[in-house]
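Quick check before the chapter quiz. The format below is the same one you will see on the exam, so make sure you can read both the input and the output lines.
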Amino acid sequence: MPTLPILSVYGDSIYPDSIESLQRSVLEHRNKGNLKVAVELQANIIEQLLEQKSEQNSALNTLYYNMGILQYESDNFLAAKLALEKSITLTKKTYGPLHESTLNGLTSLGLLLLREELLESAMESFSEAQYIMHRSYGVRSTKQEALLDWMSKIHLEQNHFEAADTLQKLNYETYKATYGSSDPRSVPALLKLGLWLQRSGQYTDSISRFKDAIHIIKSNELPSEVLHEALLGIAKTHYLKGKCCAGEYMAEAAHAITDNIKFDIIDKHKAFLHAADMSLFMQDEAIGNKAVRRSCRIWNQIGNT
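Here is the expected output.
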């Protein structure tokens, strides 16, 4: 499960300095891994604020959220659930039931429930968060990407493949609606969709998405590591489909990183070796032999360093 952020109380003048100082101490202990101490300090903060005048209680939603995250990270399911539910209740009371301030609490509660394999309850929390996100940012907002992934995971766990497929395709549609189908900012979502289609056996559509991504990447001269990722994706899809061209794309992927300093010489040797393996396996001897020779030359360079 992902690491969740912990919120802080943002220096409002109604909060005593002692509470601000304690919250900073909580964050420090949490970052150092001292969760037990952090939980005790967070409980102290909540107790102090409860003793203050009533207008300060608007901060309690954040403080209970922080407590929920700390208990989440401490693997204390019941305490985390109670604290997050308290935070959500107070947030709705303060800002209204459909305010975007509820999103942190709802998504964190959903992740907690998902971790405990309480799938129906997790889906309810994520669905409520998605509804609020749609109202706040629009149905095609790219902000919902993580939610779509988590909801897809639940659908797959429940063998609801079509529902998961719809959500994964919706993610790309949000990027296309926001940036346009040929905008470089849509490439990560396009690659993600290509990989999803590949893994779900929709090979023809997967190849089409990877080709779209490759066209955008080359047209906009995006970094070679992005092109490398797209070429590897389409090569593997061709291989899984049992058709031509897998080795060709693997070789192009290897060439794409030849001058990229983010890949060391070992990476480049392996890239050409993989291209050779796939080409020869697919009975494309011309490309396979070239890749073998290139791999050998790089290996000789390694031996001379």
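If your answer matched, good. The chain has 14 helices and no strands.
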